[in-house]
Amino acid sequence: MRVAAELPWYHHLGPSDQAHLTVVVDNAVSHFTAWFQHPDTGSPSGISEILSAAPRELATVITLRQTLQLVRLMVDVVETQATTLAPPGQERDLRDALLRYSRDVAFSAAEAYAKAAEQRGAWDARLEAQAIDALVRGDAEDEVRSRLSALGWSGRGQAVVLVGKIRDDFSEDSEALIRRTARSVAADALVGIHENRVLIVLAGEGDLLAAAEHLAPLLADGHVITGGVVDSVTDASRSAQAALAGLTAVSAWPGATPVVAAEDLLPERVLTGDATARAGLVDRVYRPVAEAGADILPTLMAYQESGNSLEGTARALFVHPNTVRNRLKKVTDLTAWDPHEPRDAFVLHVAVALGLLEAAAG
């Protein structure tokens, strides 16, 4: 059989698929012969009629390129046998008919595969939208993993979510560009529209924050919020919810950079009622400072009350300015926020206020 001899991919098919393919070839030759003998019956059969003798799954096993190779081989086989297949004097008619038949089958195959691709694309878009909704809702890990597996995610590496408001001129082409770019900068990427916002999930083993910076100009004219890198895509709900909360709060920080981490918006998120941000500031700032020693928290509070003056704090506490400086350095070491920097000082001030409220309530 020339199919087995001349088409290398044939040997990679399972025995069942090979048998079905043989049936398809026989079906194609039978349809051509019937049409050639009775050309007044109409146009040649298309790919759907030829594949009717095989399971629908065969079309997902054999690609369009392989289908066209099969058609070309079939044409060559019939053409070489023209002298025996055609009545005397009709060899040329057979070749002309074969040319028309192969052309129609090839166009029919291209149309069938294009339609299948569109259907798969529409289905993938629905799956992608459902996965985005699951992340935004904070569904269980198994639910998120199931939806992402259906999209063919590898599941390797960390993940991060970034969010931006939709541009005024946003279109399907804009979304397609974002999706292509996202998939070029990360091993796995998910893009979805949620209300008036674009959400992108990036996953893999590379520098995901650098990839997010690369994507940011495509998202929005305003700020783009990154939700923080998480250990795996099944934890991406936390990143998504933080990014969405940050997008709501970012307008309260006029000095925010175009791409800003949700973690850097904790005070503003607290003002919007974000309980996660409130707990984050208390756990990451107030408690470490309060538990660091008897002098650290009172020094930080005195420094805030003095208008961030080293000398004023030293006079209020009856200590040397260098002592105040050393204690404040301890605050920076514990929290990563520097009391001398205006923005960091604001974060620390809010965190201390929240901690004192919690301590008073407890």
N-to-C terminal Cα separation, in Å? 84 Å
Helix content: 55-70%
How would you characterize the largest beta sheet? 5 strands, mixed
Q: Work out the radius of gyration.
A: 33 Å
Order of helices and strands: HHHHHHHHEHEEHEHEHHHHHH
Oligomer category: single chain
State the shape.
Answer: rod-shaped
Low-confidence stretches: none
- Please identify the structural class as seen in this structure: alpha+beta
Give the rounded overall mean pLDDT: 81
Q: Record the strand order, biggest sheet.
A: 2-3-1-4-5
The fraction of residues assigned to DSSP E strands is 5-15%
* Helical run tally: 17
Total individual domains = 3
Number of strands: 5
How does this structure look, described?
- The chain is α+β, with helices and mostly antiparallel strands.
- The chain folds into 3 domains: 119 residues; 110 residues, 2-Layer Sandwich (Alpha-Beta Plaits), CATH 3.30.70.2730; 87 residues, Orthogonal Bundle (Arc Repressor Mutant, subunit A), CATH 1.10.10.
- Helix content is 63%, strand content 8%.
- The chain has a 5-stranded mixed sheet, sandwiched between helices.
- Helix 7 runs antiparallel to helix 8 and helix 13 packs across helix 17.
- It is rod-shaped.
- It starts with a helix and ends with a helix.
- The mean pLDDT is 81.
Summarize the structure.
With 362 residues, the chain is an alpha+beta fold.
Main features:
Alpha-Beta Plaits, 3 domains, five-stranded mixed β-sheet, 17 helices, 5 strands, rod-shaped
Secondary structure blueprint with pairings:
Layout: H1 2-6, H2 15-37, H3 47-50, H4 58-61, H5 64-80, H6 82-85, H7 91-137, H8 141-150, E1 158-165, H9 172-185, E2 188-194, E3 197-204, H10 208-219, E4 224-226, H11 236-249, E5 259-261, H12 266-271, H13 275-290, H14 296-305, H15 310-317, H16 321-335, H17 342-361
Parallel strand pairs: 4-5
Antiparallel strand pairs: 1-3, 1-4, 2-3
Helix pairs in contact: 5-7, 7-8, 7-11, 9-10, 13-16, 13-17, 14-15, 14-16, 15-16
